[in-house]
Amino acid sequence: MKNFFFVVFLMIGFGLEAGAQVYFQNTMYSFNRFVYNPAAAGIQAPGTDYTNTLTLLGRQQWVGIEGAPRLMSASYNTYLKDLQSGVGAYVIQDRLGPIATTGLNVAYNYRIELNSPYSGTSAAPYISIGINGGLLQKSLNGNFVYNQDNGPDPLVPVGSFSASALVPSLGAGVYLRGANDQFFVGLSGQDLLEPSLESILLTQGVGEDTDVDRSFMLMGGYRFELNTDMSLEPQVFVRTDGIFPPQVDVSVYWRYKPAVFGVNYRFFNDSFSGIFGFNVLDRAFIGYSFDYGLNALNALGDGNSHEIIVSWSFPSSDNTPRRETDIKSGNPGDIR
């Protein structure tokens, strides 16, 4: 446990030396980790005993601000026992002002089991190494009107036009899970190819100014078992693209089966969030978060955000693990 908190401390320190995130963000990141880290594909769905999961997410950020971010995503991931691999795919549509991103990514990871008293069971600790890739369509709407109090952005042309381009997407990550899923630590990078948006900005010769910066993400969490139906789970998520300050999310979840209650604080004058979710029929999960804005955007309108996540897990002979209660009673089974 001391080693776990030491790793989390290093994660935060690394993030503070780096910068702010540019990759799409959402508050309930913990319920769909593999879209940020391909090495997390194939982990158990929240509150269920299954790893074969379809997840839908919608987020409206800063609801009263014109051109505010909107995110929609659909993802599927599963664990293939015979190959010791996790696989997944996700589609996203992310809008921010005049710029929209629509794309598809596929992910693959290979899982290496670590020696422990749980070896050979679904509770065994492991480390996985993953990669994701795909295509993104970046588009620009020239009819969007933005605030020009400080002068127009020289890289964003003004006028009645639209432009789009396909750019490659590449990411990679590592993910460590402790025995019986008691803790996790993940490190990943996205937009590793730093694709250029010069063609859709219609601005030639500006070079790296139009490149999408690489984003790096670190996440970790620990589960304190209070009893068979109740647990407390602190988590941290640091996102950076090299600009100070970084985005640092600190969350605490209290799970009382089948419900989960959480709070999240996004550091550096951003937001405080309340989270509520519950499991239905041991396979479906429904979650909602409300972000209360703590920055100057509230002076321009409603700077609060809403987010909904729905996931459904499908049992299969390859990836349905035994229940955690069976593992603790000495009947772990042989399926991870």
Quick rundown:
By secondary structure, this protein is mostly beta strands. It has helices spanning 2-16, 198-201, 324-328; strands at 53-60, 70-80, 85-96, 99-113, 126-141, 162-177, 183-190, 215-222, 224-227, 230-240, 247-256, 259-266, 271-280, 284-293, 305-313.
Share of β-strand residues? over 45%
Question: Mean pLDDT, as a whole number?
Answer: 80
Spatial gap, N to C terminus: 23 Å
Number of helices, counting only DSSP H or I runs of 4 residues or more = 3
Strand/helix succession = HEEEEEEEHEEEEEEEEH
Description:
By secondary structure, the chain is mainly beta. It contains 3 helices and 15 strands. Strands 1-2-3-4-5-6-7-8-10-11-12-13-14-15 form a 14-stranded antiparallel beta barrel. A hairpin with a 2-residue loop joins strand 11 (247-256) and strand 12 (259-266). The model is unreliable at 1-21 and 320-336 (pLDDT under 50).
